[in-house]
Design brief:
Aminopeptidase, four-stranded mixed β-sheet, flat, two-stranded antiparallel ribbon, alpha+beta
């Protein structure tokens, strides 16, 4: 039980860093080309850099979409167990919608009153942050684990996952019998 509490305490220490990271990723526009954006490339670059700074080796999977834009997904696995607990979050966001409905720039993350505001802060920025920092805590804690931990940060969820999760499944990233 002590190790679990230690990992939770470790995540609690990251609180400010997690907030700052969420503000930063909201500011990296990741709208699908089908919705008039440039895709997730810049956001994936940023997240990949963070994972590497933490000593991890994410694998990047890129697929060209119908607009000839690379749609990157990142996959990282920690541990060497036969079975893996996978966590998935998506890196794309929907467009801004009706601009007049926004009080601030939707693609500029703002921290105010203990909350982060901006397009994608909840869907799925919080999922990205929670899963990445949980992985970081596991790595830093270096405790024995029953299963490996897998993290997939996928492209294209907002439009149907055709260039994200579906492609990774076809690549057999999530092997039958290895997932928990």
């Amino acid at each position: 039980m002590k190790k679990t509490l230690s990992a939770i305490d470790r995540v609690e220490k990251y609180k400010r860093e997690m907030t700052d990271t969420l503000v930063n990723i909201v500011g990296i526009k990741a709208v699908s080309p089908e919705s008039g954006g440039e895709g997730e490339g810049k956001r994936a670059d940023f997240l990949e850099g963070m994972l590497k700074e933490w000593g991890l080796r994410p694998k990047r999977y890129e697929y060209l979409d119908d607009n000839n834009v690379k749609r990157p997904s990142l996959v990282v696995k920690y541990g060497d167990k036969n079975r893996t607990v996978w966590v998935m979050a998506h890196t794309d966001t929907v467009g801004e919608g009706e601009r007049s409905m926004w009080k601030t720039d939707p693609f500029k993350g703002i921290f105010k009153g203990g909350k982060v505001y901006g397009r994608g802060s909840q869907d799925d920025g919080q999922g990205i942050i929670a899963s990445m920092y949980a992985l970081r805590a596991l790595v830093e804690e270096n405790s024995p684990m029953r299963y490996s931990f897998g993290l997939a940060l996928v492209a294209d969820e907002e439009i149907g996952s055709g260039y994200g999760c579906q492609k990774l499944v076809k690549e057999n990233i999530f092997k039958k019998g290895t997932c928990s």
